[in-house]
Amino acid sequence: MPSLYDVPAPAKLNLFLHVVGRRADGYHLLQTVFRFIDLADAFDFERVEGGGLSREGDVPPGLPASEDLVLRAARALQQAAGVSYGARIRYRKRIPVGGGLGGGSSDAATALIALNRLWGAGLDRAALMRLAEPLGADVPVFVFGQPAFAQGIGEDLTAVALPDRAYLVVRPPVQVSTAEIFSAEDLTRNTPSVKISVFADWQSRHWGLYGRNDLEAVVLRRHPRISRVLRTLRDVGLDARMTGSGSCVFAPLDDLAQARMHQDRIISKIASFGDGSIEQSWACTGLHDHPLRHWING
Prior knowledge:
Blueprint lengths: L2 E20 L5 E21 L4 E5 L11 H13 L4 E7 L10 H16 L6 H8 L6 H6 L3 E5 L3 E4 L6 E6 L6 H5 L13 H10 L10 H7 L1 H12 L5 E2 L6 E5 L2 H16 L8 E6 L13
Parallel strand pairs: 3-4
Antiparallel strand pairs: 1-2, 2-4, 2-5, 5-6, 7-9, 7-10, 8-9
Helix pairs in contact: 1-2, 7-8
C-alpha cells in the first residue's frame, strides 16, 4: 500500500500575542506572529481501501476519536475531496499537550497536507486552509506554511520574514486551560492594534522580542510554577516570554550552541529549587518555512 513515513508536524511559538478586542459571539480578536520551530511530532500514513481511519502509536491518553483533530481533519478531507480511501495513522508525539506550542493544531494540518498527497485529492492551499479553519484557530497557519503575522481570530495571515534565531523552550509541569484563560475577567482585551509595518520596523532595529503576551499575566497569577520558571529565565538575562496560553516559556538566542548552554544552566538552576518546577526543555532552531510547505500547490 502507498505510504508516507516520518511526516513532521512542527511546534509553533507566538513571538507576541495581543488581545485587541472581542466579537459579539465571544471570540477574541488577536494579533500575533507565529514562528515554527524544529521540535516536532511525526506521523506515518498508510493508505487503505474502504475509507476507514485507524490510529496507533503515541495517541494522547484519553483522547476519544471523535475529538482527535487528526481524524477530524482526515474526515473533512475525505468529504471535501470525495475520496474513498482511508488511512492507518501512526502517531509519534514529542510536543507536549497543553503547552501552548500548537501540537494538536499542527498535527491536524499535517494530516490535511499528507493525506491530500497520499490520496491524490489535489486540493490547493486555499482549499486546505478552508478545511483547517473549523478545526481550530491555529490550524490554518500550519497549512499556510510560513511564519505569519496573524489577525482576527487567527485566520487573517500575512507572511513575515524573521531573522535566524534559536530558542530555549522550557515546560513547567502544568497544563493550562486555554478556555479558562480567555474567559478570565482580568484578561486585557483592549491592547491597541498595530500594523505589520510597525512590527517589521521594530524588528529591523531591535534584537529582542516585540510587544508582550497578554495572556501571560493571567496565567502567572494562577500558576506560580510557570511564574517561577519565567522569572528564573529573566534573572539570568534572557528575554523570556510565555507562548500561547502556556505553560511553555521560551527565550530567543543567537544560535543553537547558546540555546544549549543556557538550557544546561537553567535546568541546573531550577533543579536546585527542589520543587519540580521543570518538566522538559528543548534547544530548538527557528524555521523559515513549514517543512511540508512545498507539498501543496498555491
